[in-house]
Specification:
By secondary structure, the chain is α/β, with parallel strands linked by helices. It has helices at 33-45, 63-78, 90-98, 111-114, and strands spanning 10-16, 19-25, 50-54, 82-86, 106-108.
Length: 117
């Protein structure tokens, strides 16, 4: 965040089998989380059976990013959509463990396992 590239989060969305895969790339912080939030909400609005959020390209996430994913989980549960996180980098995984959110979210090590229903 030191180089002023605040809104540099890129979010790719692609269908894979029965799932929609959301792939953010970059730090998910206060400036970037609205970008991720909008993309996730757009995907959830289509009510796919499964949404996989592939976090392999996210080296850092702050509390606003975590809040974005918690909100996505609430929407997914309400709409009976399976929401799975996968490929968390160590720093991001640590945040989820500290906040005990690893017990709330379904978290898989790889995209392949996250796509298995």
């Amino acid at each position: 965040m030191a180089d002023g590239m605040d809104a540099s989060l890129a979010v790719a969305v692609e269908p894979v089998g029965n799932a929609m895969v959301v792939r953010p790339a970059g730090d998910v912080d206060l400036n970037a989380s609205p970008v991720l939030r909008e993309q996730i909400q757009r995907v959830l609005a289509k009510r796919p059976r499964r949404v996989v959020i592939d976090l392999a390209g996210v080296p850092y996430m702050d509390s606003s990013g975590v809040a974005t994913l918690v909100e996505a989980m609430q929407i997914a549960r309400r709409d009976k959509v399976a929401l799975v996180l996968c490929a968390l980098q160590e720093r991001v995984q640590a945040i989820f463990e500290i906040a005990r959110l690893d017990t709330v979210f379904k978290i898989e090590a790889t995209l392949e396992t996250a796509l298995v229903e």
